[in-house]
Fold this sequence. Notes:
The chain is mostly helical and about 140 residues long. It contains 5 helices and 2 strands. The protein has helices at about 20-30, 35-60, 65-90, 95-115, 120-125, and strands spanning about 5, 10-15. Mean pLDDT is about 80; it is low at about 1-10 and about 120-130.
Amino acid sequence: MAEKDLSGGARAMAVRNSVSLGVFLAVAASSRVPLTIVELAGRGITADAAGTRWVLEVGKPHLDGFTLADKLISLGELEDQLVELWQAYTRGGVDTAAFEAGLAEIVEAKEGWCSGSVGPEEASSGHLRRVPGPSADW
């Protein structure tokens, strides 16, 4: 991602590459949704940014690669659910009430995704395992 200088020497990301962010922005900009859904989309945007910060500031420096991969896979699953829900709504396959309920679940999950602390139990993966290669000494 490219960065550019802003006044005062602060750095800001010039490019955002997030499917979730794109969906949340589309939801918020839609004239079809009530304000309660726009509010959920705003919370989703905040959660998406917080997740990105968590990965950069906590996840990468403190988790082993396998544990971080597990967490990112779970985040990707939430993103898949969000995309599927939005597509179903825009195609008329989901009514507004069901869309709002589904969106609330996804947003709450994204908000909780990075809220946990990083302790010893989170520092190593319970799902992915290293497999020794042919020249491994273990």
